[in-house]
Amino acid sequence: MLRNLLILTVSVVNADHLIPPHIGGQYSVGTYTHHSGRLMSIFDIFRRKPKMPASLEEGMASQANDFIEAFRGDGSPIDADKLDFGRESITLVDKVLQDFYSQKAPLPEDLHFLASAYVFECARRQYGGRYLRGDEQNPFVLVIGEPDCQIGFCAMGKVHGRATNGPEDNLQFFFDGIEDLFRKKLDATLI
Hints:
Blueprint: E1 32-33, E2 39-40, H1 42-47, H2 56-70, H3 90-102, H4 109-127, E3 130-133, E4 140-144, E5 151-153, H5 155-165, H6 171-184, E6 188-190
Parallel strand pairs: 5-6
Antiparallel strand pairs: 1-2, 3-4, 4-5
Helix pairs in contact: 2-4, 3-5, 4-5
């Protein structure tokens, strides 16, 4: 069975430290090998026609796993093996987003969604919850704590903010905000 890896090519202005010399202009986080042996890009993954997930939870979990797979391979800026859905692994997502902030590079929509899915799934695996549709800035919201309370966790806006605003939108701090609310069974929305 072929190991699935992924090429993620993004435009990063003046990001020489991010680009391994053998890549030549690509922010490379591995390659995705299709069962036919053909190398594919991240955009091919979105074009393929997988079966529809049975639930938002299943779909988000699948996208979070795609985020992990995107960082397997030589030249990856983070160690995919450390993306274990634990609290500490969020610092690795923060590191990836810091690179975009430092280079003043726009965060590609596909990477935005995959990173958000990973942060969502870290929270859901620790606290439980269900996904609901949100608004334009946060198309999905993880609702945690039901029936005792409702904590709305809006990761998508925060992930985008981390890439554009820098450390002031630290993901670890954002994630840590859940614990006290969850323990005290308080209703709140984390944005």
